[in-house]
Amino acid sequence: NNIQVYHGDGKQGLKEHAPFDRILISAGRESVPKPLLEQLKDKGILVAPIGENNYDLSLVVMQRQGNDYILKEKVYGFTFVPFV
Predict the structure, then answer these.
(1) Predicted confidence (pLDDT) per residue in 1-15, tens digit
(2) What is the distance between the alpha carbons of residues 61 and 18, in angstroms, rounded to a whole number?
(3) Is 53 in a helix, a strand, or coil?
(4) Is the distance from CB of 63 to CB of 43 less than 8 angstroms?
(5) Cα–Cα distance for residue pair 45/58, rounded to 1 Å
């Protein structure tokens, strides 16, 4: 009952609905878009496939702690479609 799904250009997130407990990016990027990190609640978590090559990505877990964004976990060896 407490899950909502939105479809659109995800690079800017959904500022009008922020802050979020969790953000999941399901396409490869070289880095996490800063607007998405800024839309996390304190202690919120973002999961994203990150790397320079979409065939050799790392799945990263980042957590917002105040104004800092802490890398909590990084798992190597993933392939995702590119974030367009």
Answers:
(1) 888 787 877 888 999
(2) 19
(3) coil
(4) yes
(5) 16
